[in-house]
Every structure is written in C-alpha cells, then in structure tokens.
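Reopening this one. Same input as before:
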Amino acid sequence: MKNNTNKTMPDELFNQMIKDRKVRKAITKKSFLYFFNFYFAHYVTYPTADFQKEIIHTLERSATENLYIVSFRNSGKSTIVATAYPLWAILGVQKKKYILIFCKTQGQAKQSLRNIRDEAENNDLLKQDLGPFKEELETGKNGEWTSTTLVFSNTDARIKVASVDEGIRGLRHKQYRPDLILCDDVEDINSTRTREGRDKTYKWLRGDVIPAGDRNTRLIVIGNLLHEDSLLMRMKEDVEEERALGTFMKFPLITKSSKCLWSGKYPDKESIEIQKKEIGNNIEWQREFLLNIVPDVDQVIHKKWIKYYSDLPLQDRSFAGVCIGIDLAFSLKNTADYTAMVSAYVYWIEREMYIYILPNPVNERLTSPVLVERCKVLNKYFKGEKAWPKFIVEEAGQQKGVIQHLESAGLNVQGFSPGQTDKRTRLALTALKINSGHILFPKKGCNDLIRQLTNFGVESHDDLSDAFSTLVLGLSENPPGCCHNIGDIIVGGTPRKGPLADSDRFKITMNTEF
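Same output, byte for byte:
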C-alpha cells in the first residue's frame, strides 16, 4: 500500500485504515472515493484532480442517477467508471446485482472485463477485505468466470460485457435484470461519420439497451465528442430538453478560460506542449483532448459561425416577404435523395438584407404532384400572413417542368441558375452571410439543416443544404424589395421585437400532409 501522498483522506484516518481491517472495510464500502484510492492506489500515479473527484462523488452519491460523461483522453475515466466503479457498485453500499458493460467491439469488451478480473484475482488487499469473489470447483474450473462474464460468489452478483452488435434482449441473472448499464466508448470515428451510423447507435441505446434494464437501473455513458450529433451530444440534448433523465458532464484538458483540469499531470505549459507533440495531429488534439468537434474534412461552414434568433422582427417597413428555396428529388426509393424546402422571412435593415430561416424545413420524398400541392398550401398560408411568398427553384433538367407547374398554379416562382458551380462552391458562397449574421437561424427546429451545413461532404444526404444554397443565392441574384418600398428606393428599418418564432406553428405550416 502506497503512502498517502495523494492526500484524498486525512493522514490519521489513512493510518487507522491501514492498521484496522474493520475500519477499512466499513469506510470503503460507503465511500467510492476511499475505495478507489485505497484498493486502486496502483492506478493513482498522479495527484487526483478535482474533476476526477467530481466524477467519483457523482458516482457514489446515487445508485440510480444516469450519467453522461465526456472527458479527454487518458483522463482516467475508463479506469474510474468502467473498472473500479463496477467492483464498488457490487461490493459497496449500492449492492448492484447485474452489471452490463458495452464497448464498441467484442475485443474491447473482453479487455474491459479482463481489467476487472485482474483486480478481483490479483488485488490481494481487495480480496482479503471484501472477498472471496469466486469458488474453485472440484474440476479445477472457475465456475462462471469467462471472457465475457464474472459471477461473484460472495454477493451473488454478475458482470457481463458485450459489444454493440450483440443481441441483449431478455437478459437476466436469476431474478435480476441489469441494474447498472455502462457504455464505454461505444462509438468511433467511422460509426459517427454518417447520419445513418449515428442514428443506428442512438436507436440501439434507446431501443435495446435502456429497455434491458428496470425501473431503478442506472445508465452511464462515457466517451469523447466525436461528432456534434454523436450519441453523447444527443443524450445531452435529450437531458436539456427533458426527454431523458440524468446529468451530463464534460471535462476538456484545457477549459475555455485556459485552465488545465489536471495540473498534477500537466503542471505547466511545457508539459502540455509535450503531450500535444506526442499526439502529432492537431485534429486529434482538438478532438481527443480539448473536446472540440472537428470533422476530418475541410469544413465549408463552421458551427461557431451560426447565429441564432429568438424572435422575428415585426412585419413592418423593413419586411420583404417570405422566400422558399426548393431542392427537388423525384425518386421515392429508400436510397434516393429527399425533396427539401427551406423557408425564410426576409428583411431590409439599414439597407442590408437579413434572412431569418424558419424552423422545421421540409425534408421528405415527395412526388411532383404532392410537391405542387404542398407549395399551394404554403402559398395560401403565407399570403394569409401577408408575407407574399416567392418560391426559388433551380433551373435544371426535370425541375424546369416543376417551375412551369408552379407558375400554372398561380405561384410566384423564381428560377435560379447555378451555372457551372458545384454544390460545395454554392454553399461556400453563403458562408460570408452566415458568419456576418446576415443569415439567422431559429434556436429550435433546424438541427438537421445546421448539421448538413456544418458537416457538408460527410453527411450522406445534403438536400437541406442544397435548398438552403438555392434560397440564399437566389435571393442574392434577385433581391426582393420591401413590402412598403417607395418607388425603387428600399426603405430600411430598425427591427422591433415581435411574437416568438413558434416552431410548432411553423411545423403545422411546413409539414402539412396530403
């Protein structure tokens, strides 16, 4: 046993625990902090950081609170959460009976269990105080101690590991369903690269993992921020929107205020610089240590450029109407693109055009007749709002025919010709307006659009992004005048706060079904 150099407990108490086994057992069963620093002292090679203590205290304060923990690489999160905590959760006051641990691959899952098994078999002080953990059978075998399962004879508890691809329905250990479920790095760069991959992991957690537990089952998910739409980011949003219970915790190595969270391991700038050079890749450094989400490809639109609004200005002298950018797709196959429609209120403020993107854009597979009917409904609605709608459609191929159908239906349609520019270039042409705040987005209802903009080239579909480019470049090519302009002179105005841009109101408008 090491000396109490870490100072997580008073020296007097530390010395008493060394001498008195009963005191040691009583304290470590109640406190995960003392359990970790006493029985896992061989892991504590640097002074325990405050953020690590926060994780430990959060784990021990409740047996049922769900946790979503993001921390920098080599921060000790897997050792604390996925190795030491399962043992304490079984042997300590939480008295868990069935722990289920998930990793991305089967190999990673088996390694995770090996780490736990090594402690249970080789940690002499832990075995002496809180064991024995397994019974040697007459055959010489170790009972249910396998590469994927451990059953503790002294507490009748089970730890099982699995990969994300293994079936887990109906799991039970005697009368117990899993009462602690740990997900340790269940995503990687490849699985988060596409929307389909991210959806698959999220549906797996929501549809398979969580239902495997019971009413009082605790869920803990730990990992890095690999994508702004990753599992941990979705769970963070679910917690904030009260669609899920739990606590989200995020610990970058260096905070925005330039504070190092583990000064015991990185005491100065030189030590941090050495770590950065060892990584040798700025993208990996940003992603793995600073927890900044950086796509592998060159971004066209950066997330930090996106500006938001809470209220729409009033439809006063500055108001120029509503415009709808349309990107058409005619196939209804499951692998085909979607038809996308992005709408915006347009204002002239101090002689400059401002575009307020409306929430809940259309992104569906629509036939041409259904599209025309959808546009007619939107036209009727926005005219009722005195918004004088204009539909902007790219003039190419079959889309020219749709333009004619919309015109025949009495709609105000503007054709937009992109010339020889590709999709990436078109989106890049909108970047300045986004970064300058001349294009504003609602705080809710545009997540898919923003995701496609900020991950262009990575997402499997870019229909909303294309409709957005068509809208913005069409407006730039043929700017609307104000609804109250005098002759040919555009009258600007100072925006006044109007009603909140209610996303439910626009959902009814934009997503009408036929």
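So the earlier flakiness isn't reproducible anymore. For the record, DSSP finds 18 helices and 17 strands in the chain.
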